[in-house]
Amino acid sequence: MLEVARLTAGYGNKRILKDVSFSLGSGQVLALIGPNGSGKTTLVRCISGVLPIESGEVRVTGRDTRSLAAQERAKLMAVVPQVRAVPAAFSTREVVALGRTPYLNWLGQLSDSDQSIIDRSLQQVNMADFNERNVGELSGGEQQRLFLARALAQETPLLLMDEPTAHLDLQHQVSLMQLIHRMAHPTPEDLQHGVQPKAILVILHDLNLLSRYTDRVGLLVNGELKLMGTPQEILHSDALRQAYHLDLRVLRDAESGTEVVVPLEELRE
Question: Would the pTM of this model clear 0.90, i.e. be above it?
Answer without folding.
Answer: yes
